[in-house]
Amino acid sequence: MAAKYQAPRGTYDLLPGRAALRREILAEARALLQGAGFGQIDTPVFEDSDLFVRTVGEATDIVRKEMYTFEDRGGRSLTLRPEGTAPVCRAYLEHGMHKQPQPVKLWYTGPMFRYEAPQSGRYRQHSQIGAETIGSDDPAVDAELIDLLAHLYARLGLPSVRLHLTSIGDPATRAEYGRELREFLLGHDVFDEDQRARIEINPMRAFDWSAPEIVAVTEDAPKMIERLSDADALHFDEVRSLLDAAAIDYELDPRLVRGLDYYTRTVFEFRSESLGAQSGIGGGGRYDRLIEQLGGPATPGMGWATGLERIEQVLADVRGEGAEEAAAQQDTPQFMFIVTEPDARPRVFRAMSELREEGIGATMGLGSRSLKNQMRAAERLAVPWVVIVGPQEWERSAAAVRDMTRREQDEIPLSSLRKELLSRGR
Ligand code: HAM
Q1: Within this chain, do residues 360 and 287 fall inside the same structural domain, yes or no?
Q2: Are residues 339 and 258 part of one domain?
C-alpha cells in the first residue's frame, strides 16, 4: 500500500543504519576539532532574511532562487538558513566574542535548507559539519583548517578526495579583474542571452559552464590568480608552503568558483570522484570582510563546511553492503532478556532496571514469541549476552546466561543475577 504522506521533495528520513554511520562521522569530527581547540556552537535554523542577503550575496543562486523565506506571524521576514557561516559571524558579534582573545574557533553541525533541483547527492534539506576561525588573518589559519578537513576525510577512510585551491584576492582587485574578464568574455560570440546576462552580474560564473566552445574561451581568459595584489599573493604563497610542509596534495585551480559572495583570498573545495555530478564534498575559504559587513569591527575569518550526506554516500559505497548495519551494531544492547515464564517478568524487569542504573544497556523480548524466535532476534541484534528465564529456570529461581560469541551457557541463581551480569557486562 502506498503511503498517503511522503517526506517533502528533496528531503529524506535518516533511518537507524544511516544514523549510526552519521554518528561515526560526527564522533570523528568532534574529536578532531575539539582536539584542535574548536568549541561547539549551535545557532537557530532560521535567521533574519537580511543576514543572508547581505553576506551570501544578492546576485548568488542561493539568494536569488534557493532560500526558504517566510513571514512569521509578527510580520518579520525570516529564512531557513541556507548555510552556517553568516549565522556564526552574527553570533560572534552578538555575544561580544570580538572582545575575547583572538582568534575564536568554533565548529557546528546541523541542517541547511536550499530550494535546489533535487538529484543524487543534492537535497533541499542537507546537513553540514562546519568549522570557522574568526579573528586572525595569519595564513597558518587557512592551512590549519584545510589540513583538518583533509584529516577528517583520511580518518574516515574516504578514497580519492582531491583538493582544489586558489586565491581570489580582495574585493577591490577582484572588481577590477571582473571588469577585465567581463570585457574579454563578451568579446566572444559563444554565449546565449541568459549567459550574457549572468556574465554582466558575475563573470566568474562562466568558469563553471562546461560546453566545449565555452571552455575553449574561458581557458584563454585572464585568471584572478594572475592579478592578485602583492599582499594577497604573499598570503597565498605562505598558505601553499604550509600545505606543502604538511604534505597536503592540492591542485591549483584558478577556475574554482564558489557559490557564495563573502569570500576573499584563499578558497578551496574537496571533490570526490565517486560522487558523480555533485562531486563537491566540502569547501570553504576566507571571508575577511564579512564581520564588517554585519556592522562589526574589521575582523578576518576563515572556515569550511562539509556535507554529511555526501560523506555518507562515499562511505556506504566504499564499505559496501552492510556498512550501515555494521555501524549500527557498534552500540547494541549488552544483554537481551528472553522470558518465556510469565510469572518471572516482574523479577526480570527489576533486574533490567538495575542494570540501566549502572549504565549497562539491556532489552527484553516482548509478547509471547517462542524462545527460538527470540533467540533469532538476539542474533540479528548481535547482542553479546542473552539471559533466559523459562518455566524450568523459574522453578529453580535461576536464569540461564548465554555467551553468544562462545556459544556457551551457564545457570546462575536469580539472587545473584545483578552481581553476575554486572561483572560480565563490563
Ligand atoms: P557550500 O560549498 O555551499 O559552503 O556547502 C558546503 C558543503 O555542503 C558542500 O561541499 C556539500 O558537500 C554540501 N552541500 C551543499 N549544498 C548541498 C545540497 N543541496 N545537498 C547536499 N549537500 C549539499 C558553505 O555552505 C559555506 N558556509 C562553507 C564555509 C564555511 N565557508 C566558510 N566557512
Answers
A1: no
A2: no
CA of 304 to the centre of ligand 1 (A): 8
Domain extent at residue 357: 332-425
**Residue 165 shares a structural domain with residue 304:** yes
User: What value, to the nearest 5°, has the Cα angle with vertex 132 and ends 292 and 19?
Assistant: 140
Closest by CA to 32, choosing from 143, 127, 159, 153, is 153
Shared domain check, 248 and 124: yes
Same domain, 297 and 408: no
Bridge partners, residue 389, by sequence = 339
Residue 324 amino acid letter: E
Ligand 1 pocket: which of 43, 66, 267, 310 to mutate (most atoms within 8 A of CB): 310
CA of 325 to the centre of ligand 1 (A): 27
pLDDT tens-digit map of 175-232: 999 999 999 999 999 999 999 998 998 899 899 898 999 999 999 999 999 999 999 9
Helix, strand, or coil (residue 286) = strand
pTM: predicted TM-score of the whole model, two decimal places: 0.92
Residues 97-115 pLDDT 10s: 999 999 999 999 999 999 9
Strand, coil or helix: what is 193?
A: helix
Do residue 309 and residue 336 come from a single domain?
no
User: Ligand 1: residues whose CB is within 6 Å?
Assistant: 83-85, 114, 116, 121-123, 126, 128, 130, 132, 259-260, 280-285, 303-307, 309-310
Within-domain flag for 355:
yes
Instruction: Report how far ligand 1's centroid is from the alpha carbon of 95 (Å).
Output: 25
Domain count, the chain: 2
